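Quick illustration, no need to memorize.
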Amino acid sequence: MNVRLNGFRRLGIAEVLLGLTICGPALAAEPAGARPNIVLIVADDLGYADLGCQGAKDIATPSIDSLAAGGVRFTNGYVSCPVCSPTRAGLLTGRYQQRFGHEFNPGPPARAEPHFGLPLTEKTIADDLKTAGYVTGMVGKWHLGYQPKFHPTKRGFDEFFGFPGGAHSYVDAKADPANLIYRGTTPVDEKEYLTDAFAREAAAFVARHAKERFFLYLPFNAVHSPLQAPDKYKERFASINDPKRQTMAAMLSAMDDAVGAVLKELRDRGIFENTLIFFISDNGGPTPGNASRNTPLSGFKAQVWEGGIRVPYLIQWPGRVPAGRVYEQPVIALDILPTAVAAAGGSVPADRKLDGVN
């Protein structure tokens, strides 16, 4: 499938990969018996130019960069909104969030409208992959409704570790009594730096389900405010003089380590070669707020200039996706659902209108 935007043809991800592949079958041609595990990693408020593979000189991100080196980096990757929750609604449904009235962020947990969340009429990528026989897990930030009916385990996920809100202290699990850390539906008094805790839980999910087909959704809250990082990460960036940039760099480095922990677990379990990995940010960097950089783009988070909606966008699937390629044709976060479901050998009912394309 394809769509036309402003007079030009936008290819689906599978078509892009088919066009880039020199040897071996394209993503869409993967035999059903070799269906991949699927990992979807989302950074929060990451600037377009904050990764090494995106041109950053002051922040080393070797684990995330390895996804670009081993896969495809899309230079014109977009999200469907310049702020957190609507982007996630679009990402998880493959549909523009305006179709179902989720074009705004919910308020803070204590003041949010109780009935505001991802509408129960919408199916998620987790629903689709669960139907296809996958074990589904989420570790990280939800931000799609606080009421029990909106809980991730009611939206297709078998397992959940994270928080329901849009932001969270990295160092105090109980900082906001209305936005606690949960394992499933049970609050936990997490003691680790939150990004490290997400690394631990994500790697543990991979270990538990290494002999099954699984989908892991890993939406970090890094590098969203509050700007907090342990000294062990800040010490890596003593050369950065701007305190705000230094802390953001430390938070990003912790997230890169977390990605590395997941990749290591995949390798240690012998399943790395058959794992399809997506990496994006939920929106552009809020440059004034966290010293992120969207160079050379204009604008930042909450704006519909390029800096608000054009994001790092990486895909890796060893042996199936060509390594080290850079592609300039536009793609969007909405494309991830139909692409992942197709790779999993699943399908989306014909009467469910998707805006993303495979």
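Residues 2-343 form a domain with the Alkaline Phosphatase, subunit A fold (CATH 3.40.720.10).
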